Amino acid sequence: MRILVINPGATSTKVAVFEDKQKILQEILQHSVEELDKYPTVMDQKEMRASAVEEFLRKHNLTIDQFDAIAARGGILPPVESGTYIVDETMVDYLINKTKVQHASNLAAVIGYELSKKASRTIPVYITDPVSVDEMIPEARLSGIRDIERKSLSHISNMRAVGIRIAEELGKKFNELNMVIAHLGSGISVAPFEKGRMIDVNNANDEGPFSVERTGELPVGDVVKLCYSGQYTKEQMKKMFVGKGGLVAYLGTNDLREAFKMAESDPKALEVIEAMAYQIAQEIGAMCVALKGKVDAIVLTGGMAYSERFVDMIKSYIFKFAPIFVVPGEMEMEALAYGALRVLTGVEEPKIWRPQEV
Ligand SMILES: Nc1ncnc2c1ncn2[C@@H]1O[C@H](COP(=O)(O)OP(=O)(O)O)[C@@H](O)[C@H]1O
Ligand SMILES: CCCC(=O)OP(=O)(O)O
């Protein structure tokens, strides 16, 4: 079985080709800030990113007819249960016209679906574990005011894939263990998995620790003051939280490696990195509490987990809580391909997504 995987992120589109479980090709198609700035909304980037994917296929002498399926990163649908979903007109219409949150992941299913329509035969398109998977327990949902309910928006597909891998290493099934998994990428998700179910998670756009480009949680009173100061538009405020927050705000870079270089001559830069590690460790501690302290493993994954020095900073706070495993980078492309493969091989029934009001 040959599967095309499409995974749009904030500044790049990752594309891969799988032959069954084997990844035979992967490229990160970078989109410059200048290029992205031309588009008022994320969905406006659709044609540009789709062309980049088609160019990737041409470059490797591939045509869409040569694929058995397209696997796309799932976008911001209303809260859904985990699993693999068929991409159809209803889902595509929701992602283009109705989704409440703009995010690059919304492009994946849309680009995949439009690409599949160019084939001379039916090529199914699937998403697996979209970012809006919601398995939170009731007590995790309350924010403290009626008008705001906490949202489950996370790096679920990588976290689950990594959790399954660590469980295998431990000779167990994922749903036999309790784990706290922290995805440490441009955005940060920290989630407690109770016997495979993600019972809570910080919204990677709005909550939790600050990251290389996001503020995470902020003192709410001061945020209100800034909003009403007349100094910033709504768009500028949003950019301040996601894109220009965290390391970018303090050090002007979203690259942890660059930040460590700065720290060689600037103690303030080291302080910022240490503060990020401290906040991540605090979030991990909070999620150990969600599991009532019964934690079989803590797993650190994502791009920042490549840095041993940064991982050691986090470990210094949490080493007493549970055994710690590190899986640098991400297994998201695998998670998406394997989800499609499970459906193609009949191991799993695909789900059909419908908005609740229909
Ligand atoms: N080898 C490395 N050492 C230290 N930091 C790294 C390394 N590789 C990536 N990173 C950092 O990881 C962060 C991005 O993580 P990543 O998981 O690639 O994010 P995303 O895919 O969400 O953009 C960046 O700050 C980057 O500097
Ligand atoms: C919206 C939650 C998932 C997320 O933050 O993904 P990115 O880091 O790819 O923006």
TrEMBL record:
<keyword id="KW-0547">Nucleotide-binding</keyword>
<dbReference type="GO" id="GO:0005524">
    <property type="term" value="F:ATP binding"/>
</dbReference>
<dbReference type="GO" id="GO:0005737">
    <property type="term" value="C:cytoplasm"/>
</dbReference>
<dbReference type="InterPro" id="IPR011245">
    <property type="entry name" value="Butyrate_kin"/>
</dbReference>
<dbReference type="GO" id="GO:0047761">
    <property type="term" value="F:butyrate kinase activity"/>
</dbReference>
<keyword id="KW-0418">Kinase</keyword>
<dbReference type="InterPro" id="IPR000890">
    <property type="entry name" value="Aliphatic_acid_kin_short-chain"/>
</dbReference>
<comment type="similarity">
    <text>Belongs to the acetokinase family.</text>
</comment>
<keyword id="KW-0808">Transferase</keyword>
<dbReference type="GO" id="GO:0006083">
    <property type="term" value="P:acetate metabolic process"/>
</dbReference>
<keyword id="KW-0067">ATP-binding</keyword>
<dbReference type="InterPro" id="IPR043129">
    <property type="entry name" value="ATPase_NBD"/>
</dbReference>
<dbReference type="Pfam" id="PF00871">
    <property type="entry name" value="Acetate_kinase"/>
</dbReference>
<protein>
    <recommendedName>
        <fullName>Probable butyrate kinase</fullName>
        <ecNumber>2.7.2.7</ecNumber>
    </recommendedName>
</protein>
<dbReference type="GO" id="GO:0008776">
    <property type="term" value="F:acetate kinase activity"/>
</dbReference>
<keyword id="KW-0963">Cytoplasm</keyword>
